[in-house]
Amino acid sequence: MGFATNAIHVGQEPDPTTGAIVAPIYQTSTYVQTELGKDKGFDYARTKHPNRQALERTVAKLEGGQSAYVFTSGMAAIDAVFRLLRPGDHAVISEAVYGGVFRLSTQLLVHFGLEFTFVDTSSHDAVLGALRPNTKMLYVETPTNPTLRVADLSALGKLSAERGITMVVDNTFLSPYLQRPIELGAHIVVHSMTKYLNGHSDAVGGAVILARQEDAEQIYFLQRSAGSGLAPMDCFLVARGIKTLAVRMAQHNTNGMAIARYLEAHPKVKRVLYPGLPSHPQHEIAKRQQRGFGAMLCFDLDGLEAARRLLNSVNLCSLAESLGGVETLISLPALMTHASMPPAVRQQIGITEGLVRLSVGLEDAEDLIADLDQALDKV
Ligand SMILES: Cc1ncc(COP(=O)(O)O)c(C=O)c1O
Fold it and tell me: Which end of the chain has fewer surrounding CB within 10 Å, N or C?
């Protein structure tokens, strides 16, 4: 079946008891056993419940994994993946990674004997140079948040296979509709489902999708032992959002490109970072490995005051963290999503104080352009 069909039907079969086309929300903590040691497939909601199981089937199918596990947030999912490592292990991470991953690794996981090196994963040589005998994981965000650097997943997949390293890809920015990392060599895909998978800014959740059985067993053990599995209501909301993922992403592509072109032509904008523009340094790689360019973009204004003026002048775009919803969100990574990074690191990877991030939503593109236009006039 095609992507849109799978998104609507896999894991979303009508409820066997009543025929309800949408499965009910199983808002229960425990399940009655028919006799001692015998149940109907569920015993306690921390370990497993029908809404979670259904969503996990959908997500695994869409990413082309053998299984998936869904968590209370993207960060809980990512934390579970890093716990596959053992003290003394080393991981190489994209340097322009989501700020929360930087915080988790450098401020928490280092205390458990894990070592991390941050490199520009769009440079094959930089990745190669960072590998050590104890490197067990390569954690790639592509495109990166917020600098939109694109890594060559096939090349990194080949390298990981040769060196016996587990390759993890954060596919949050594109969703499986636009990029399928497992087909390009990744062993594990992670998502903040809070973003495009849910798509409606009304739930927080994360997913880990696995290509290998041995990783799947460990991740499920972790989910049920640590109790970090997603609750029924949130599973229901994300499952509902996923049904329209294909049409939403197609329209996000169109809107993203329209806004990127508008901004690139604006005299007050110093540069636009969007993999769909021929001016983007990894445009050709993005064209090859992605089915579209998505709706995340950044642009540089002349410093913090110019950016502040813009952010305070927009009306239709909402000044908020997060991304991937139907509404357009605008933010300043240096002071918001990436505030936990030391200023020197931010500067090194190009997160200037004038760098504005847009998560282009599904409003009419001409309305968004009119809003940005009046706000840029005030800069
Ligand atoms: C690329 C990326 N990965 C992971 C996360 C973390 O997800 P969550 O906020 O659902 O914990 C985010 C959050 O913004 C993100 O942008």
Answer: N
